[in-house]
Amino acid sequence: MLGGAGMLLAASPAQAADISYKTECIPPPISGLPPVQGTTKVQLTAPAEAKVGDTVEVVWKTVEAASRNPDVLDLEKDTVKPTGTIKVGGAATGTLQMEGPRQNPPIPKKSAMVLSDMKGTLKLEKAGEITLTPDAYNINVSKPISTDTKCTPKETVQPGATIKVTDGGGSTTAGGTTTGSTTGSTTGSTTAGGTTAGTTAGGTGTGGTDSGGTTTAGGTTSGSGGGQTDFPGKEVSVNFACTSPGPAGIASKVTINAKKSGGSYALTVKTAKGVMDSPAALPAGALKPSMDVVIGGADKGSVKVTGPANTTPLEQGKPVDLSDMTGTYKPGASGKSTLSPGTLTIDVTLGSSKINIPCKVKGSVTPSLELDTTAQQGGASGGTTTGSTGSTGSTAGGTDSGGGLAATGAEDNGTLRALGLVAGTAILLGGAVFTFTPWRRLRGTR
At CB < 8 A and 24+ separation, what contacts does 153-156 make? Predict the structure, then answer.
């Protein structure tokens, strides 16, 4: 150990007592998940004795975190970083900021969280006994995206170490737990949240050939007979109700355009610009939209249209434009057939983790396009495309294919069936899950 003003006193290598306390971990704000209860066990070490003017080092060893890594995602080596605070009491008051390196072994699913030791330094300015008490801590996971989980004590915590500070020379007693206090702030910790993979199966009409047809756009006949090939739709307002972890309700404007090719139609669906704010920083290729276009009138069924993923990285909180979605409509009946916006699904993919968020149409919606169709063999009429249906919002938008999120907290307290994502992705760590909530309402103008 080093003595003297301005010099660092290393923590005693002697054993310190373990301090256990009930802990509540709050998932990242975008998750919308409830708090997770668990138990944290901490060991603090610091010099048992020091003198005024010394700077001492305090070490926080997490013997047991409040939760395990759930049965969702293996955490890679060196992706977990803990931070925390220690309450300083007695002859000094304040908080000591603690920080550990992003250093961990691979952490398999369902195994205990392994956090690196956190350290902090405290300069001693007054004689007397100083107590050190572990307080809140955070866990940050950097991959597949950065997420934070904040864990705070839910009961009175006992001091984990005591430093006796003297005016003069002082000795360090091995074997005692010691601590020092300092003022500092905690940084957000993160927990990884599992991602559920729900996928929405959506049928896509395939091509065919046949004759003719007229179309009406927005209720007004825009052309007739075989000469017209382009049929622009009108922009219609749509209210969507999204399942967790999506927002409770969003609104946008949607336009469905068609281009005739033989007896089939190539559809292009456009949504309003800046439909939502990105819930997290996402890399290029992470977010992809799709929609079930509902066929009504003479024909019945739905056609799935899909858009490409984002080509540039998305910044958290910045407006996001969904790409144009395309698909092919093959009529199954002759007559006036309407095309209306149906369930909008947003898929987020990070590595092997995928989450899908279906947003069903809420209430009624005006058709964007009306076409004079001619039945094609194998067309849409009478067929049911898997996935959500249209303006009535009567079917679910996706199928949960990946099971629920694994249990979080110190004990298994149920399966969390809400996605984890992506940013979800979510890695679920410390009992928190990263999801897509809340989102700002989709903007109503293009």
Answer: 153/21, 153/22, 153/23, 153/40, 154/21, 154/22, 154/23, 154/24, 154/37, 155/21, 155/22
Strand partners for 100: none
Query: Of 328, 264, 304, whose CA–CA distance to 395 is shortest?
Result: 304
Cβ pair 368, 341 in contact under 8 A: yes
Instruction: Check pLDDT > 90 for residue 71.
Output: no
Question: For 188, how many CA atoms within 13 A lie in the half-sphere containing its CB?
Answer: 14
In whole angstroms, what is the distance from residue 310 CA to residue 321 CA? Answer: 9
Q: How many CA atoms lie within 13 A of 142 on its CB side?
A: 11
Residues 6+ away with beta carbon under 8 Å from 168? 51
**Which residues are CB-contacts of 202 (< 8 A; sequence separation ≥ 6)?**
290, 292, 302, 304, 306, 345, 385, 386, 387, 388
Tell me if the bond preceding 247 is cis, omega within 30° of 0.
no
Check residue 232 and give its pLDDT: 95
Using left for φ > 0, alpha for ψ between -120 and 50, and beta otherwise, residue 254 falls in beta
- Give the pLDDT confidence of 86-134 residue by residue, as tens digits: 999 999 999 999 999 999 999 998 888 899 999 999 999 999 999 999 9
- Taking only the tens place, the pLDDT of each residue in 212-237 is 443 333 433 343 345 789 999 999 99
d(CA 213, CA 261) in angstroms, rounded, equals 11
- Residue 394 neighbours by CB under 8 Å, 6+ apart: none
- In contact, 417 and 242? CB cutoff 8 Å: no
The string over 246-256, giving b where at least 16 C-beta atoms fall within 10 Å of a residue's C-beta and e elsewhere, is bbeebebbbbb
More confident site: 28 or 253: 253
> pTM above 0.70?
no
Q: Are 204 and 220 in contact (CB under 8 A)?
A: no
CA atoms of 383 and 203, how far apart (whole Å): 9
d(CA 340, CA 330): 15
Beta strands in 325-419 (DSSP E): 325-329, 335-340, 344-350, 353-361, 369-373, 399-400
Residue type at position 400:
D
Pairing of strands 301-306, 94-99: unpaired
From 351, 345, 281, select the one nearest 316 (Cα to Cα): 281
